[in-house]
Amino acid sequence: MSKVFLALQDVDEARPIVEAALKDNPGAELEHQPAMVRITAEDRLVINRDTVAEISGTDWDPQDIQLVLISFGGNVEEDDDAFSIYWN
Amino acid sequence: MAKRLNMRERYKLMTRLGWEPSYQPKEKIFPYDKYEGIKVKDWDAWEDPFRMTMDAYWKYQGEKEKKLYAIMDAFAQNNGHLNLTDARYVNALKLFIQGVTPLEYQAHRGFARQGRHFEGEGARVACQMQALDELRHTQTQIHTISHYNKYFDGFHDFPHWHDRVWYLSVPKSFFDDAMTAGPFEFMVAVGFSFEYVLTNLLFVPFMSGAAYNGDMSTVTFGFSAQSDEARHMTLGLQAIKFMLEQHEDNVPIVQEWIDKWLWRGYKVLSLVSAMMDYMLPESPMSWKEAWEIYFEENGGALFKDLERYGIKMPWYADICAKEKDHLSHQVWGILYNHTAAAAFHTWVPDDKKMAWLSEKYPDSFDKYYRPRYEHWREQQEQGNRYYSQTLPCICQTCQIPMGFTEPDDPTQIAYRSSEYMGDKYHFCSDPCKQIFDREPEKYVQAWLPPQQIFQGNCGGASLEDVLKWYHINLGADNMDYVGSPDEQRWKQWKGLLDDEPPAEVSNG
């Protein structure tokens, strides 16, 4: 078991993404640092397009995460429906 | 109506535009992709984790730029530099523009040049985008930091310094080494070792340091760049996995490159360790903590993932673990000693900083380093602030002055040497020696600042001659922070001068 992490800018645009991450990934933890939020999870973290869209009330393209992304730890898989980080 | 293609399919259609050449043999079009011994059976196996076509690229980059420059303008218009915790912090930015920004430019050139030499289009497109990103980083850093150039010393001639000044040959030689390697080694050196494994140890200290010390401008640049870095990280990791999956013969070659480049990167980062522990009036975390999170924990998880390919954690990982209690203090000592010849200030840490250092380094600070600082402080109070008048012996590989100690004995300076073609070469450590011994023909050509100065290639025989050749303004860019024009101006702006009423803060 290895920890993956996702660090996002602590701005309004990131809030639905953070909420979606915590909703869809049981066991995921949130940490606040200056101007940044850090989400950690065991082995896998998935951000689902539908969940983010539902929370924000508007369409969301997983590629939009790039506007608020700071860093991550793990392998990345990106498609039309989700943005995922995982270790094998 | 035809169904919209999914991301994978769209990207493939827009980037896999290669063809079998018929006018020229393939080896002439891609002359450098075989000589390193890396075997590729099938370039179609290259996976693009971030599938950004050019329209998406310009859309996102344009959005980021608009936000970034708006914040820079606001910072400048509101004299944001007056919100810093203390002007000592600005020396971290001097180190950044002098040491890091030129490397961004080198990375731009490197990816443009090396990326051209991969046969697979996926790799070429990703390198091309990274080359654009790195040029963006160069420019945004210069723009961000240019504001400070209006108010502080130590910024005005950074490209000139980078190519000549002694401590800057440390980062410069790192990239010269990478640029003169082949395309696959370049990918492992920069894309993997630096952009994936070590990037957090460069960016997090500078950016959270900026956040903790009131430098909103730099924080904003940092976050804006980091989203590009996410793409760079995936390129580096993908390149490694591609090489390892293509042929088992690639594994030992890649392992050697990983071992070489993680050490070279670690040595460059020792300058960052001193910055984060000593230059930040408010320190978010210590080097030791950063190393534990970003290398031991994150790097540990990564190497666990790579185990299935037969890749191992570099053999010297335990040296780094032993050094984490000492690295920053030893580097600060080196920089403190040679500040007369540097384009930034150093100083003896105050009691508050020393209390923080005691807390963060319970096994080493009070025993080995506090007595040193208390002695230097005493000397300074008596008017004897020490500045070395001689040149240090530097390591032939990493080019840092040889002030590092044995991993198992922090009271013993570490010396290693090798003989090659009748000459003797000096190293700070076993890994630096091993890097040299593996490729001596490369490292014997290193441009070493002390040797060059002694040969008379740097403006003359005196320190003053050399500083003039460096374009360092004596008594302004160099020497201790205490007594510097930077300090004088800061006290004036903040109303801290003993004999003056508080200055009016300008809003224009």
Description:
The complex is a heterodimer of chains A (88) and B (508). With 88 residues, chain A is of the alpha+beta class. Chain A has a single domain, classed as Alpha-Beta Complex (Phenol Hydroxylase P2 Protein), CATH 3.90.56.10. Helix content of chain A is 20%, strand content 43%. In chain A, the strands form 2 sheets. In chain A, strands 2-3-1-5 form a 4-stranded antiparallel β-sheet, covered by helices on one side. Chain A has a 3-stranded antiparallel β-sheet with strand order 4-7-6. In chain A, helix 1 packs across helix 2. Chain A is globular and about 35 Å long. The model of chain A has no long low-confidence stretch (mean pLDDT 92). Chain B has one domain: Ribonucleotide Reductase, subunit A, CATH 1.10.620. Chain B contains 20 helices and 4 strands. In chain B, the strands form 2 sheets. A two-stranded antiparallel sheet of chain B has the order 1-2. A two-stranded antiparallel sheet of chain B has the order 3-4. Chain B is globular. The mean pLDDT of chain B is 94.
Main sheet characteristics of chain A: 4 strands, antiparallel
The CATH level-2 architecture of chain B is identified as Orthogonal Bundle
Number of helices of chain B: 20
Strand order in the sheet with the most strands of chain B: 1-2
- Supply Rg of chain A: 12 Å
Largest sheet of chain B: 2 strands, antiparallel
- Strand content of chain B is under 5%
Query: Helical stretch count of chain A?
Result: 2
CATH architecture group name of chain A: Alpha-Beta Complex
Order of helices and strands of chain A: EHEEEHEEE
| Class computed from helices, strands and strand pairing of chain A | alpha+beta
- CATH topology term of chain B: Ribonucleotide Reductase, subunit A
CATH topology of chain A, by name, is: Phenol Hydroxylase P2 Protein
By DSSP, the count of extended strands of chain B is 4
> Which protein chains are joined by the largest interface, and how many residues does each one contribute?
A-B, 27 and 36 residues
What is the subunit organization of this protein? heterodimer
